Amino acid sequence: MASDRVFGLVVILGALAFIASALQIPATFISDPVGSKTFPIIIASFAAICGGILVMRPDPEPEWPALATLLSLLFSVVLLVGYAYTIRPLGFLIPTAVAASVLSYQISPRPRFALLSGFGLSGGLFVCFKFALGLGLVAFPRAFFG
Amino acid sequence: MDLLANLALGFEIALSPWTLFLAVIGCLLGTVIGALPGLGPSNGVAILIPITFTLGLDATAALVLLTSVYYGAMYGGRISSILLNIPGDEPAMMTTLDGYPMARAGRAGDALVISGVASFVGAFLATVLLALVAPYLARLAYKFGPAEYFALYMLAFMTLGGIGSNNQAKALLASCIGLGIAMIGLDNTAGGVPRFTGGNLHLYDGIDFLVAIVGLFAVSEVFFFIESHGKGSAIGVKLESVTIPWRELWVTRWTMLRSSVVGFVAGVLPGAGASLGSFLTYMMEKTIAGPSGKFGTGVARGVAAPEAGNNAAAGGALVPMLTLGVPGSGTTAVLLAVLMTLNITPGPTLFTDRPEVVWGLIASLFIANFVLLALNVPMVRLFVKILSVPPALLLPGVTMISFVGIYSLTGSYFDLVLMIGFGVMGYVFRKLDIPTVPIILGILLGNQMEDNLRRAMILSRGDWTYLLSSAISIGLWIAAILGFLAPFFLRHMLKRPVAPDEANED
């Protein structure tokens, strides 16, 4: 119940912001009868109506995970963002092994298996991508080689 | 005969060693992906797209590879349905109803063979029908102007959520969100005004739909597995011997043929797709057989019908995608993304300008079907072993492949973070029971939908009644409204059957 209501409100606010942003779009000298604003405003209006329906007639509450699981999910998101930013400066192998091991441990808490899958995936995928598919991946940070 | 000449052209391309090789690889990969619980045709194709592009395959090759994966995943989806009672993907859900009871009665091998042959019959007939129907529809599509296209997009968005989701407001909302995301970027009709970019230069080109697809379909999956700790994985599934139950195959022949035709039609309808195909065919056969058919207790016809139906629907869904550029299902939406990235505009002109792409694809599908029959009947035991790959290895692998794929395609951190964002969005939306396929379709088609609306308005000098000025567009609008309203009534009539486990208890 509550989830759909909250989400409906978020949608309505988002739609209003979208419309406000659409109204700011400057008109240009190339003009067509519809213009840059109309279609986005139509979409946002429909979205706002749907949001209103969700607020008024919400579905049964979905099963949200417990707090511990939620934190673990949050951690995995942070981990993936970190992975995204380290893959180039640190090379492919190390960040991939770390990220894959942690994800594996999060899915099934068996440390040895997780480490093995992490390193196995890192090495295996590197060989696949680099040599079988010919993608230009860098194995280690360039600094290692001066 | 045009058709024969076209097919000859197609087979000339499809039988070249390189194309043949790609088709076989695609079938293998597809069956593996389909068999793995948690991976289905749409996310399977999604994670392979970026890699395919980085390989620099040409249009025909990329399309052959990815549609072979698509067909393969449709075949493979039944394996985990039958052995584990977990559908490998949504369309395979109906196969659990009779497939799993058969497996529990010690007839897993029979169920796999019957469903494999049914998949072949469905997919093969659908490919024949595709070759026959698509050129006609493509010719009809020449009559489509901007107003008709706008109505067609309306039809797709109105029907897409329909039967698949439980709440029309949520399905429509998902379409709006997708369309809204498509608006981000420069507005080229008005000479390049930035819209909804918040001044962020990364957003000027708009959001790459591949980033959204991989995020929503592949990355979100890893979050679900972290939450569930990979429950329902399949350690210790055994399949003893596989023999071919000739008699039962012969008994189910009419079931397979009927289901193929119904499945194909369900697939052609925009937005309906394979899930509807398997659902309708199962219900149809159950009604025809009556109570003496013992559907739900593990009968051959109950396995044959949904498998013929969903594979035929997979072929049918290619028809609107190729001829009109409007996909009939989630996976064809992903394939449309492939075409658009390759700079191929689907639609009637595709059939005249690039016949080698269309007919090469159709010929490859014929070949893929035979390859898949060989893989899925005599060699099915090989794929059963794949079910025991633990999710703690599989899902990190999928995530890493997604990252490498998007990174090598776009080379930007921003897109990787955006992909993670779409992954989180996919998780939250699926929790809230909001369908994600309309979002993808909205992102893919949003700009074209707006363009067609604006072109129609330029033609009519701002007269909105122009949208309803031809018979085709009025028909499409009526179909769109009916398609949106129908689920309200049908939902009460077509209650989904209970899962086999619950069914056995009462």
Q: How would you characterize the overall build of this protein?
A:
The complex is a heterodimer of chains A (146) and B (506). Chain A has 146 residues and is an all-alpha fold. Chain A has helices at 2-23, 38-56, 67-86, 93-107, 111-132. Chain A has two domains: 2-56; 67-142. In chain A, helix 3 (67-86) runs antiparallel to helix 4 and helix 4 crosses helix 5 (111-132). Chain B has one domain (2-505). Chain B has 506 residues and is mainly α. A two-stranded antiparallel ribbon of chain B has the order 1-2. Chain B has helices at 2-14, 17-35, 41-54, 59-84, 93-104, 108-141, 146-162, 168-183, 209-228, 246-251, 253-268, 273-289, 300-316, 318-324, 330-341, 348-353, 355-376, 380-386, 391-410, 413-431, 437-459, 471-493, 500-505, and strands at 185-187, 193-195. Mean pLDDT of chain B is 83; it is low at 497-506. Chains A and B meet through helix 1, helix 2, helix 3, helix 4 and helix 5 of A and helix 8, helix 9, helix 19, helix 20 and helix 21 of B.
Structural class by helix and strand composition of chain A = mainly alpha
Q: What would you call the shape of chain B?
A: globular
- The total domain count of chain A is 2
Strand order of the largest sheet of chain B: 1-2
Largest sheet data of chain B: 2 strands, antiparallel
**Beta strands of chain B, count:** 2
Using the CA coordinates, give the radius of gyration of chain A: 24 Å
By DSSP, the count of extended strands of chain A is 0
The value of Rg of chain B in angstroms is: 22 Å
> Given the C-alpha coordinates, what overall shape of chain A results?
flat
Mean pLDDT over all positions of chain A: 86
Structural class assignment of chain B: mainly alpha
Helical segment count of chain B: 23
Largest sheet of chain A: none
Taken together, the total number of domains of chain B comes to 1
From the N-terminal CA to the C-terminal CA of chain B, the straight-line distance is 58 Å
Number of helices of chain A: 5
Secondary-structure element order of chain B, N to C: HHHHHHHHEEHHHHHHHHHHHHHHH
Assess the beta-strand content of chain A as a share of residues: under 5%
